[in-house]
Amino acid sequence: MIFIIGGAGRLGQAIRTRFEGSDTISLSRHVYEDWWKPNSGGQISKYFQPWAGTHSTLFVASGLLDPHASDTDLSRINYSLPVNIIENVTDLGIRVITFGTIMETLLSQGNAYVQSKVALSRYVSHAASNDRAVAHFRLHTLYGIGEPSPFMFLGQILNALRSRSPFEMTEGKQLREYHHFEDDAEAIYRFSTNWKPGIVELSHGQPVTLRNISTTLFSAFGAEALLKIGARPEPEEENYHTSFSKPDFAESMKFRDALPAIVKYMEQCLGGFRAEG
Question: 168: which of 60, 231, 248, 262 fits an S-S bond (Cβ 3.0–4.6 Å)?
Fold first, then answer.
């Protein structure tokens, strides 16, 4: 059995689609919305008891991504919820997979969102070392389902292209891997068939700079004049040099080439507005 918490979200949708054909349950939000509370263990155990010992897998794909959300909400949703689930579900013989960000490894401080995921990964690492069946995926930037969140880099570019307003950015030297949701869902599926507890960095090893992304998009949509590179200061703490490698379970996978795939994705977001060339 495959269980998904956060199945209405974009990552949850991609996982549900990839596991189509399996026995899958996407839990309604009202079922788990209070599971972050300290006294929720009994509710969690009761819900999953019928599947005890069935070697089922639970994906905790819910979470807050906005770094401007309150520290309290980020802690409840990104840390307390998955921790409570892990502590009560793994005792029933059900495996758990949680999700975080590759930035957990790159920023010594990071924003409140990153810190909530750092705390979760530390817990998962400790739990896995104590024989709990849990894994934590550190993901790169995802795109390809719905529209990008307004606070994300692609979301800000989308707003500028729609409104034909200037887009101010840094020199854009930051390195990023962009992954299509469907590609990561395929990699997660492959991992689930060759399970290993602990921390997993899901990379494809083909980073691009934010400058590459912005110049490609504004050029593709004939809006070069809107792009203001260097208008904002370069952050001191960022990823300017580190690249990652594919994990073994994804070695044979072919991930989408990020720049042309992002252009196609933004065409869809803009309602069929065709990129030039």
Answer: 231
pTM: 0.93
Which residue blocks in 101-231 are alpha helix, DSSP H?
112-129, 153-163, 181-192, 210-220
d(CA 23, CA 25): 7
Query: Which pLDDT score is estimated for 272?
Result: 64
Rounded Cα–Cα distance for residues 235 and 8 (Å):
34
From 7, 271, 266, select the one nearest 144 (Cα to Cα): 266
Backbone angles phi, psi at 272, to 5 degrees: 90, 0
- Give the mean model confidence (pLDDT) for residues 247-270: 96
Give, for 4, the enclosing helix (H) or strand (E).
Answer: strand 2-5
d(CA 194, CA 39): 34
d(CA 70, CA 184): 28
Please, are residues 66 and 151 in contact by the beta-carbon 8 Å criterion? yes
